[in-house]
Design goal:
alpha+beta; six-stranded antiparallel sheet
């Protein structure tokens, strides 16, 4: 068994070597390279399993080779030890190997976005092994996140059925489905994941200053590629206006201009634009032909946020966007879905710890209902319950 100093030195060599090699490393070669450097701390094998798009199974990243006998083709998220580590975000001991070695399932997290798990094999039990497992998992997650956008191997691995062209476009431009930074927790779900067409969500921090979080949901007319193109254009217009300092009302007007310029009045989009001030907890939003968001307090009490919907984007270029403001308390959550009919929306469950804690968690969970639209949820700090609606730009 290595001494504590040897293990610590090996830990630094493991991270330094893996990060140095990652600059010129194809994603498909990551498992072999991770195992090579993990040997510095006594890990005899590292296997990488990534979750599929709908987070139902965990599939091994094998580097394009025939599957190693140590890999299982895929593991279910529900009902497996690997799935438990993935769901709860904790290192979980695997079944005994019979050879004196130990298997450990380690969650792969990019921030709070769950990517998959590692299966790490160790020759002995060391009290500091968990620390090095988490460090290795963090480095591997960063490498995967940096390379997945240019790896078709990653796309094929995380899909278990064909995807339509509109969904291909939407998934390529949308933000990660989970985000947390200690001030706010954001989570989204898109179903049916492989045919989402004109449905999309967007969010960004520091929208107009360091304390602002921007949130948006779009639902374009139709269920075809044209709907995907329309939603794509709406998101592009929204981001462009927002990055030039526009608020929700001004951004809504810019989206209207761009859609009418491109399509005339032949296409339309409904949606919500919102900005959250994380210092005061004030949420300002604009509604364009959309269902109102639902606010949830204490995971028990819920109500709709009051804001009369304005006209759908693409139908008029004159009418101002209705806007509203409200203030949130700690662990308050809001959930929204651009569903054409309330009966088509899958119920969502939101839970979050205090947003002041970096370890706060948030989840939007799907049910068996055939939800055909994106659902988003977020929580934020502050306290008061005042809500006001207007048809002019809200005061700063």
């Amino acid at each position: 068994m290595e001494s504590g100093q040897d293990r610590e030195a090996g830990g630094w060599r493991m991270l330094a070597g893996l990060l140095a090699d990652s600059h010129l490393l194809a994603l498909e070669l990551l498992p072999a390279k991770a195992s090579e450097h993990a040997a510095q701390v006594g890990f005899t094998q590292v296997l990488i399993y990534l979750a599929d798009l709908q987070r139902e199974v965990l599939r091994p990243l094998t580097g394009g080779r025939d599957r190693d006998t140590a890999h299982e083709a895929e593991l279910p998220v529900d009902g497996s030890v690997a799935g438990r580590a993935y769901q709860y975000g904790t290192i979980t001991a695997g079944a005994p190997t019979g050879s004196g070695e130990h298997h450990w399932w380690v969650p792969l997290l990019d921030g709070t976005e769950r990517l998959g798990v590692l299966r790490i094999t160790t020759a002995d039990e060391d009290e500091h092994a968990g620390e090095y497992m988490n460090l290795l998992a963090s480095a591997i997650a960063l490498i995967i996140e940096s390379k997945q956008g240019i790896s078709d191997a990653h796309a094929r691995l995380t899909r278990i059925r064909p995807m339509n062209i509109a969904a291909e476009m939407q998934w390529a431009q949308m933000a990660p489905r989970t985000y947390a930074d200690g001030r706010v927790v954001i989570s989204a779900a898109m179903e049916p994941a492989y045919t989402i067409s004109g449905d999309a969500y967007d969010y960004a921090t520091a929208a107009r200053n360091a304390h602002t979080v921007h949130l948006a949901i779009f639902d374009a007319m139709g269920h075809d590629t044209a709907a995907g193109l329309t939603a794509h254009l709406a998101i592009g217009a929204s981001r462009n206006a927002r990055r030039q300092g526009a608020g929700p009302v001004e951004t809504a007007a810019r989206i209207e201009e761009v859609l009418v310029e491109q399509f005339g009045h032949g296409r339309y989009v409904t949606g919500l634009l919102a900005e959250l001030d994380t210092r005061s907890g004030v949420l300002t939003w604009a509604n364009r032909g959309h269902h109102t968001p639902v606010i949830i307090r204490g995971s028990r009490w819920s109500t709709h946020l009051a804001c009369p919907p304005g006209p759908r984007w693409g139908r008029t270029s004159r009418c101002p966007s209705p806007s509203a403001r409200t203030s949130w308390s700690p662990a308050t959550g809001s959930s929204s879905t651009p569903t054409a009919s309330p009966r088509r929306a899958a119920p969502t469950t939101r839970s979050s710890a205090s947003p002041a804690s970096p370890t706060s968690s948030s989840a939007t969970t799907r049910t068996a209902s055939p939800c055909r639209r994106p659902c988003a949820a977020w929580s934020a700090p502050s306290w008061t319950t005042t809500t006001a609606a207007s048809r002019t730009t809200p005061p700063s």
